[in-house]
Amino acid sequence: MTRMIARFRDGSSFDLTLVALALAYLFVFAALPMLYTVVMSVQKIDMFTLGTLARPFVGLRNYAHVLAMPVAWRVATNTAIFVVLSVVLQLVIGLVLAIYFRQDFPGASTLRGLFLAGWVMPALVVGAIWRWLLAGDFGVVNFLLGSLGLIKGHIFWISDPHVALYSLIIANVWLGIPFNMLLLSVGLAAIPADVYEAASLDGASAIQRFLFVTLPMMRATLGAVLSLSIIFTMQQYDLVAALTQGGPSNASNVAQYWSWQLSFETYDIAGGSVVAVVMILVVILVAILYVRSTRLEQQA
Amino acid sequence: MKRSLLLGIGLVITGLYLFPLYWMYVSALKSSQDLFAYPPHFLPHHIVWTVGQVFVQHEMATYLTNSFLIAGGVTVICVVLGTGCARVLARYRNRWVDVALFAVLMTQVLPSSLMVMPLFVGFSEAGLLRTPRLAVILAQVAKVLPFYIVLTRASLSQIPAELELAAMVDGASRIGAFFRIILPLARNGILVTGILVFLQSFGEYVYARSMISQDDLQTATVGLSAFLGPNTSDWNGMMTYSAIYVTPILIVFVLLQRRIVSGLTAGALK
Predict the structure, then answer these.
(1) pLDDT per residue as tens digits for the range A80-93
(2) How many domains does chain A have?
(3) Chain B window 177-206: which residues touch A at a Cβ cutoff of 8 Å?
(4) What is the torsion angle, in degrees rounded to the nearest 10, for the CA atoms of residue A28, residue A232, residue A118 and residue B249?
(5) How far is the C-alpha of A236 from the C-alpha of A233, rounded, in Å?
(6) Candidates 3.30.1330.10, 1.10.3380.10, 1.10.3720.10, 3.30.200.20; correct CATH number of B62-268?
(7) How far away is chain B from the Cα of A212, in angstroms, using its nearest Cα?
(8) What is the interface pTM, i.e. ipTM, of the complex?
């Protein structure tokens, strides 16, 4: 017994305990629930069987049931548009801003830091603010676009089924820009200055330097930032709840919100679990790509 | 000359980006007529101070207290559970550490809105929903603990292992070296990461909304969502509520901005 205590105090057992505690917590409160979702997605669940674990097994019938819903394809397309457009816009704007604030002028790093104000705010509050900015009648965005001559009349950002999804994307891009910009600045800072000097001496123009020096040297960072933005965008629930609630009539619904709606609003827990399982698989696939690209970067 | 031009454009870009924040504060201070003026006034004509009224009417004291308790609980559990784990993962470099890190990263990416259903069912089976704020804390810790471990690991790996070894040569136990050498050196990193965890949990929404049914136990996010129905019209109340809610967050952010930036950049890509 005393030997065990001594080993705990001085040997590796102490280290092992520290790691095991945290991992055990994550196992109970993250891994187990995830497995439980998979289990629920192949069970018949109703109000009577909710309290027990032993529910009737129904195979893939829940999956067929969800795929047969007419909104399923709508939601799948919406999710794809939401993720792709958000991620591309965040990356492009983030990269432009990161390059701009790399330049040498007073206050550059302070200004860059101020962008993170968007990142520390609760996403639900950001959604509420955009709800007001994008309001159809009195919203300031409609006014600004109108006075620049870009639109005639008013766009009903939230209630028009053709644009509701895009107002979600606008708010989500705003929310994601700081993080993209910050990580890309780190990547830019890691490129040694003499590479640029050598390229300039060889007569490369600014555009050529960007295409043939910056982009290739940033490949690993771009990969990591891209996968992180995809993951964050697929986690975005609060903005949907604040702006459109998936409406009007699912025109702006995305999978991570739909899954919640199925489970908590229509009590179709099996259906909600099916959507969750599919989403979790996609997220984990992206996360594996992320880990691989950070590996590449460490080796480089 | 060129540098001040760059600064000028930089200020304009930052101003454009932060315009939504400005608009929130201005709208919170406007009178109703002012608010519905079209074209909108970019400066308020009459400042109407409704902060006290909104704060009392929407029971913000209760909501903010609940958010504060939940965020505080999450932060304490995270720091207690995560710091040691981060230290060990920073200190060794082998296959098992890689496996552990990979497992931690994988739990970080799971979306809360998908995890809430199994957690809800599991918690209700375990009777945890009778203490709903504790249930939210437990769920939210699983969400932010990986983030805490990854960032703290990055700041801890800057402390050389030799310091710990030297302390042990001088007769300290490993536990003693951890508490008396490593923790004091890592204090700043732990503080900043802890604050980030706190801020994230202070704005938590989906767990609170799904697991807490009693109104007097609800968080400030759920209180805000009362404004967000399909036919919103109380813009002034909504923006005042938002402003009261985020001002303390923004003050903390401005005070710690430099450290938050360096803490995030150190951890995010390693």
Answers:
(1) 999 999 999 999 99
(2) 1
(3) 178, 196, 199, 202-206
(4) 0
(5) 5
(6) 1.10.3720.10
(7) 23
(8) 0.90
